[in-house]
Write a structure and sequence with these properties.
single chain; mainly alpha; 13 helices; globular
Length: about 300
């Protein structure tokens, strides 16, 4: 895409958009912690997707009206994958909401960032992508850091706390969801994808949310409603980033989420991880960056070898 900017400025713009996306995502994930553990994760997730749907619906309608030759609904195979992605997103965000209300924010964020490891595993199993030794070593570093950052329980019979297990489960679901996103991204329009995912997620979580619904103040409801717009801002920032700069350059940027999480945790909630947890967070970031860089080099080498 030609943005009208010189290549260097396009790259800088892409990096700034990517960092903005990480910042918006971190703020989005911090909102349930502000409300506190008294609200069910299903209730939180309903607010996130219902208000996300409210934001994206007008853009979807305008896009459908402006492209009369395009069907409103995607082919059934893609629609099923969008619904599957919505279900996985519900499980992932519910797990993360549970985690951040029971462990320090930065620790939970670090554990969740092992999603790249799980994405590598699922991509190898489903998409038959090869994994070299350097990539495998990076994954081990990243995962080991997550286990340290989780600040395990002193009870040796149960190494990880429930919050850490929830964050790890969310990371695994996120890795599988990323494989689905990779498949559907080039096969459907962005606004239609977002509309279907948000609508499906809202419907899927509605009944569970109603069954465990807890009364909340107007202030708490307003805080949770902000998740919708922040989610759309995150997605728009990411899309603009990938239009301006190479994916291989932008991928490591997501590990700046650890920095934002430390900042939010300290100034927002008075949390600061222990030295051991900080070491684990550093390993997660280092392993994750190495993982994305080696994956990018492998992709570039494959492209160069093609006739």
């Amino acid at each position: 895409m030609n943005t009208g900017l010189p290549p260097g400025e396009q790259t800088l713009a892409g990096l700034l958009w990517a960092i903005s996306g990480v910042m918006f995502a971190t703020l989005l994930l911090s909102l349930p912690k502000i409300v506190g553990p008294g609200i069910s994760p299903f209730q939180v997730v309903f607010f996130r997707y219902f208000f996300g749907l409210a934001v994206i619906a007008p853009f979807f309608a305008m896009g459908a009206a402006g492209q009369a030759n395009m069907p409103v609904l995607a082919p059934w195979r893609l629609t099923r994958l969008h619904v599957l992605r919505a279900a996985m997103a519900l499980a992932r965000i519910s797990a993360f909401v549970y985690a951040i209300t029971r462990m320090p924010f930065a620790n939970a964020q670090a554990v969740t960032l092992t999603n790249g490891v799980f994405m590598m595993i699922f991509a190898g199993a489903i998409l038959k992508e090869r994994v070299n030794r350097v990539t495998a070593a990076a994954a081990v570093i990243c995962f080991s850091g997550a286990l340290i950052a989780a600040e395990p329980s002193s009870d040796l019979a149960f190494y990880l706390t429930p919050g850490a297990l929830a964050a790890l489960f969310g990371a695994a679901i996120w890795g599988l969801e990323s494989v689905v996103i990779r498949y559907t991204a080039e096969r459907d329009r962005i606004e239609r994808t977002l509309f279907v995912v948000n609508a499906a997620a809202s419907l899927l979580v509605l009944l569970p949310a109603l069954l465990v619904w807890q009364p909340m103040s107007l202030q708490s409801a307003a805080v949770l409603a902000l998740m919708g717009p922040l989610a759309i801002l995150t997605q728009v920032s990411n899309m603009r980033a990938f239009r301006a700069a190479r994916a291989s350059l932008l991928a490591p940027v997501r590990y700046t989420a650890v920095i934002f999480a430390l900042f939010v945790g300290f100034f927002g909630f008075g949390e600061w991880p222990s030295p051991l947890a900080l070491a684990g967070i550093g390993l997660v970031a280092a392993g994750g960056i190495l993982l994305t860089v080696t994956a990018a080099h492998a992709s570039l080498r494959t492209m160069m070898l093609k006739p």
